[in-house]
Write a structure and sequence with these properties.
The structure is a homodimer of 315-residue chains. By secondary structure, chain A is α+β, with helices and mostly antiparallel strands. The first copy, chain A, folds into two domains: 11-143, PurM-like, N-terminal domain (60s Ribosomal Protein L30, Chain: A, 2-Layer Sandwich), CATH 3.30.1330.10; 154-313, PurM-like C-terminal domain (Phosphoribosyl-aminoimidazole Synthetase, Chain A, domain 2, Alpha-Beta Complex), CATH 3.90.650.10. Chain A is built from ten helices and 13 strands. Chain A has helices at 3-10, 59-75, 96-112, 169-172, 177-186, 199-210, 225-232, 240-246, 262-272, 307-313, and strands at residues 20-22, 29-31, 38-48, 80-90, 116-124, 130-140, 154-159, 189-194, 213-217, 253-258, 278-285, 289-294, 297-300. In chain A, the strands form two sheets. The first copy, chain A, has a seven-stranded mixed sheet with strand order 8-10-7-11-9-12-13. In chain A, a hairpin with a 6-residue loop joins strand 1 and strand 2 (29-31). Chain A starts with a helix and ends with a helix. The model of chain A is unreliable at 305-315 (pLDDT under 50).
């Protein structure tokens, strides 16, 4: 049983109350606590030594990454982050200087985005470090963007370039907070999420939440320089397009809007964010499932990402 | 360097913003997010296998304890809990039935207190389970009770009976949410906190935050049956009073109010909470430091709790 199956099994029995607008299943929980015109966003995210970073990772980057991942989830709702709590589980013999550097990286990012670090706790984890961030944010009631609003005929967009994040970007990416808020303020975005587990898998979650399907154009998917380089390396078996579809930790924005607004969006985007690519990678379809089109035709992408498709291709 | 020293070192550099009312240092962070008449409370707390529970602990009780500890911090501000996120770090080969039972214990407690469980995440912790709870609550602006309001002449009160929690109470205690709200609504409480690290150590934090001292009456400190029993056991070296002063995980309320209101409080309490003892255990003094009075006179309690005092006594 994987994480998603476990969550699906636990979901129906979770306690609830009248303030819940969106519970588990989207990028953040959404609550109505009575703030006039705004909803509260609530999210936690943990990074674990040996999984999300290593003992050699510069500590400032560990702190940056821990908070940036959580901020990316606030961006995924077009929200404004407000305050964070930091849970640091450390071996007993931790080095104080290392902890201070973790906080330095975390604080620098927090300050750039107006986030208050209002406390947290340290606890003992004898074998490996774990950092969990709890984050509060808010969003205008009419601008909170969920995964579930995609409609047939929508154009699908993605920011940045995908794949190969583990070469370094996963440690110093900047969460797309300003970009997401700009989108929500200026366009009628139907569905929005951030990319954390890889485009193919994450898009599938958006499609399921929206009860629609999608067809991607292989030639339009933006592939990062790292994914292209890795694809040429003799130790890598992952072609660049496969990396862009299935590598995790991109932390870019994935969203849909009515195809009629696509050109206007691309024009406005170029003016406001000239340094960040925006690509239209496909369209939402009424038929369920996720397909990809290349010069050889249209094929299904398998549930577990691109692996199954790639295997078929080589048959 | 212990947890408190580490936090003190990190505190001055933490990022902040205009919504922060109380940052790190009290039982919860307190934020003004614009809810009319109310403040938002924000707290995280983690329990770790081998430290806060064992591999043998019934899983329902692990879930109960993880949430109850965090709810106790909301009680410590006289707040109303609203919603929780659950971070579960698990070995790869976790048993689904065990996780479901953890959630069952957690959900039952959440439902009793109107708390929505709005999601969270599972991540990997190869060596031992860790559960971190992030909790949101609210409190009326004029009823939020901090640690820092104690005044010379105040009477010091504690609910319940102290010590020996590890005999079992730490796994199934009920957080004192209703009691704390009743106190804030009906009395002018000056300072409030919950007991997690032991009366002597926790009271010292309240005194430091309020820049006052205290004198306790040894005979008035309520000692639990478990602490008395353990004190008689041949393997225990801890006298019952020492256990009541220094054992952790009591999760009772510690508070102060003007001594003139003490009798009225004790009378009203008995009517409203006939099953929960309330004891006046001493008074706040203008002189700093923590002292205890018994039949042999008044003595200082050492910084690290009661140990130093006990050692002196046996000389």
């Amino acid at each position: 049983m994987n994480e998603f199956e476990l969550i699906a099994r636990l979901l129906p029995s979770l306690a609830t109350n009248d303030s819940v607008v969106v519970a588990a299943g989207d990028d953040c929980a959404v609550l109505d606590l009575g703030v006039p015109g705004r909803l509260v966003l609530f999210k936690t995210d943990a990074v674990v030594e040996g999984i999300h970073f290593t003992a050699d990772t510069p500590p400032e980057k560990i702190g940056h990454k821990a908070l940036a991942r959580c901020l990316s989830d606030i961006a995924a709702m077009a929200g404004q982050p407000n305050s964070a709590l930091v849970t640091l589980a450390l071996p007993k013999d931790f080095a104080v200087a290392r902890v201070e550097k973790i906080y330095a990286g975390l604080n620098a990012l927090a300050q750039r985005h107006g986030v208050a670090v209002v406390g947290g706790e340290t606890t003992t984890s004898p074998e490996r470090m774990l950092i969990s961030i709890a984050l509060l944010g808010t969003v205008a009631k009419d601008q909170c963007l969920l995964r579930s609003g995609a409609k047939p005929g929508d154009a699908i967009f993605v920011t940045g370039q995908l794949g190969g994040s583990l070469a370094g970007r996963h440690l110093d990416f900047e969460p797309r907070l300003a970009e997401a808020r700009w989108l929500a303020e200026h366009f009628s975005i139907h569905a929005l999420m951030d990319l954390s587990d890889g485009l193919a898998g994450d898009l599938r979650h958006l499609l399921q939440a929206s009860r629609v399907g999608a067809e991607l154009r292989a030639a339009s998917i933006p592939i990062s320089r790292e994914a292209k380089t890795a694809g040429r390396g003799k130790f890598s078996a992952k072609p660049p397009l496969l990396a862009a579809l299935t590598d995790g930790e991109d932390f870019e924005l994935l969203f849909t809007l009515d195809a009629k607004s696509a050109v206007r969006l691309l024009d406005a985007w170029k003016k406001h964010f000239p340094d960040l690519p925006l690509a239209c990678i496909g369209r939402i379809t009424p038929e369920p499932g996720l397909r990809i089109r290349d010069e050889r035709g249209v094929r299904e992408l398998a549930v577990r990402g691109y692996e199954h498709f790639a295997a078929k291709k080589s048959e």
